[in-house]
Amino acid sequence: MAQTDPFRGYNFKVEIDGITSTAFKECGGLDSSTGVVTYREGTDPTLGQRKLSGLLSVSNVTLRRGITSDHSLWDWRQSVASGDLQRRDLSIVLMDDKGEEQIRWNLQNAWPARWNGPSFDATSDAVAIEALELTHEGVEVQTW
């Protein structure tokens, strides 16, 4: 059996409404969990509990990038803040070392719940980073 090497975490791109952006430094928060509901039947002679699956929960996804003159993320956040909730489909795509798509996480009905501006330090030469936290209504995974 041939050994399969894991994919590297730096080789990803983000697509928002089908438009590719590889300018993100970091993407985090891909998480899904199922709640647990416990109960005890009244006729059960033991004191044990039964466990059933509850509601599916997905975490917010945070995108970070160097801030530039492209203010499209800020504009999207501002539209939501002013009451115009613009939901968009979002894909996070992991590629192999050859640049070929391997895994795609599709997030449905995403919108920016939070924007964080950069921190400033006059004694540092670090890039100014903005972050956008996106909430969404579910994730679907596609593999090749």
Automatic annotation (TrEMBL):
The record, for Pfam families, names:
Phage_T4_gp19 (PF06841)
**Signal peptide residues on this chain, from the entry's feature table:** none
| Domain of life of the native organism | Bacteria
Please name the InterPro entries in this protein's record: CHP02241, Phage_T4_Gp19
Q: What is this protein called?
A: Phage tail protein
Species lineage, top-down? Bacteria, Pseudomonadati, Pseudomonadota, Gammaproteobacteria, Lysobacterales
